[in-house]
Amino acid sequence: MPVGDKTATPISIQSSIVMRQPVEALSTDLRARTRASAALDPHTRSARQDGLEARLRDKDVDAPWEVASELVDLGYQSAELVTVAAAFGGVPLASLVGWMAAKAAVAGLLDAIGGGLGRVVNLVAALRAYTYLDQAPLQQVDINQSLETTLQVMRGRLGIGVTLHREFAPDLPTIEARGGELNQVWTHLITNAIEATADRGELTLRTRRDGAWAVVEVEDIGRGIPDTVRPRIFDLFFTTKPPGHGAGLGLHAEYQSVVHGHGGKIDVDSRPGRTRFTIRLPLRR
């Protein structure tokens, strides 16, 4: 650097700038790979891991099998590792891959936290909609949205073994109703349907308009309701569940809400292998 040249950059700062560029580029690449990581078929994964493990072992990297597995999860192959290492010049490969693994782990954790917070926010919003907090008891209710909100609140209850089908009429008008009560009706009927399928069957939610009525159907491919039980399912306190399971009220509350609370109708059609509850609610009251 010429004496008296106050505009020249010191060599140490130049080195820092040069090093920062590949670090920033690699950090960006790791974040992208963490979010876009995809499952590989066993053969491809094994081949990639073997190649990376061999290269890491040649460079005296500790626990090369563990590091190789993490790099494969990020989508790296042996040839790419050579390119990355070249960008960092004299940085030992062992230090570089250790930093890469740690950086990817932090990025994945932050994404998981962000996703978790997003799910919490969505659930809180769904719960507010489900209970119709801060809203008048009687209001215009979108039945399709009411069912979607209930499903979101019940997301953990549906389980991975239940196949859900939605058949919602897009032009279904809103109705004047007590939204919170209707959501409880959907919850109870959906819960019963899930239990009838033993958590591994099919559940169909269907909406349609029939003249002056908005119609909701909750149908399950399950064990059905025995003929001896069906006439009593809307009776107060009647339930087929053992003590300690459920509220012990049966479907009486649902009957009261639909028929007496909303001027509607509720019917059941059941046979071995299928049960369908049909709820009719007046479009105008």
Produce the secondary structure layout:
Elements: H1 11-36, H2 42-58, H3 64-73, H4 78-87, H5 93-131, E1 139-141, H6 143-153, H7 155-158, E2 163-167, E3 175-177, H8 179-196, E4 202-210, E5 213-221, H9 252-261, E6 265-271, E7 274-282
Parallel strand pairs: 2-4
Antiparallel strand pairs: 1-3, 4-5, 5-7, 6-7
Helix pairs in contact: 1-5, 2-3, 5-6, 6-8, 8-9
Task: Please explain how this structure is put together.
By secondary structure, this protein is α+β, with helices and mostly antiparallel strands. It has 2 domains: about 100 residues, no CATH class; about 140 residues, Heat Shock Protein 90, CATH 3.30.565.10. The chain is about 50% helix and about 15% strand. The protein has a 5-stranded mixed β-sheet with strand order 2-4-5-7-6, covered by helices on one side. The protein has a two-stranded antiparallel sheet with strand order 1-3. β4 and β5 form a beta hairpin. The chain starts with 10 loop residues before the first helix and ends with a strand. The N terminus is likely disordered.
